[in-house]
């Protein structure tokens, strides 16, 4: 009796579905990533009042040395030379979205005249809501500082 030779199967890892898995991982990370638009490091003044800041707000930051940075809330903040440029920036943001809130984040060592100049620029641009960011202790975190406030 003659026996037939069996066909030899290739041993290996099936790679047909690996492209699908990689594609799904890329989509997952694209959907779940969030960028911080204003990374300006400032030491905030303290307050006792707490308000929630909207996620899609425009940011104006003033550092300890007086540098002003702006962001519409959709891109990374960029430096501007002074309050006049804040006015033109804010006017563009208000023109695109009249109800967009602005968050002013100033270092506690900044002279008030700089903060007042930026607030005046935001008012001239017809910004409807302006939040002044401050450092505050919250009840639920045991006294650690929190950078969200009003």
Structure at a glance:
The protein is of the alpha/beta class. It is built from three helices and seven strands; from the N terminus they run H-E-E-E-H-E-H-E-E-E. The protein has a domain at 58-146: Nucleotidyltransferase, domain 5.
Q: What does this 3D model show about the protein?
A:
By secondary structure, this protein is α/β, with parallel strands linked by helices. The protein has a domain at 58-146: Nucleotidyltransferase, domain 5 (2-Layer Sandwich). Helices cover 28% and strands 16% of the residues. A five-stranded mixed beta sheet has the order 3-2-1-4-5, with helices on one face. A two-stranded antiparallel sheet has the order 6-7. Strand 2 (68-71) and strand 3 form a beta hairpin. Helix 2 (83-96) packs parallel to helix 3. 21% of the residues are buried.
**What structural class is derived from the secondary structure elements?**
alpha/beta
According to DSSP, the number of beta strands is 7
Give me the Rg, rounded.
26 Å
Number of helices: 3
> How would you spell out the order of helices and strands?
HEEEHEHEEE
Q: Percent range for helical residues? A: 25-40%
Portion in strands: 15-25%
- Which fold name is given in CATH as the topology of the domain at 58-146? Nucleotidyltransferase, domain 5
């Amino acid at each position: 009796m003659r026996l037939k030779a069996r066909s030899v199967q290739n041993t290996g890892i099936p790679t047909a579905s690996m492209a699908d898995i990689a594609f799904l991982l890329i989509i997952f990370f694209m959907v779940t990533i969030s960028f911080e638009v204003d990374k300006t490091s400032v030491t905030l003044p303290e307050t006792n009042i707490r308000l929630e800041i909207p996620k899609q707000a425009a940011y104006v930051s003033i550092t300890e040395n007086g540098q002003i940075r702006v962001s519409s809330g959709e891109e990374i903040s960029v430096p501007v030379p002074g309050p006049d440029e804040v006015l033109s920036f804010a006017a563009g943001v208000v023109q695109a979205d009249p109800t967009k809130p602005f968050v002013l984040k100033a270092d506690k060592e900044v002279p008030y005249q700089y903060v007042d100049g930026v607030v005046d620029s935001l008012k001239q641009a017809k910004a409807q809501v302006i939040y002044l960011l401050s450092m505050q202790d919250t009840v639920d975190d045991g006294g650690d500082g929190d950078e969200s406030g009003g």
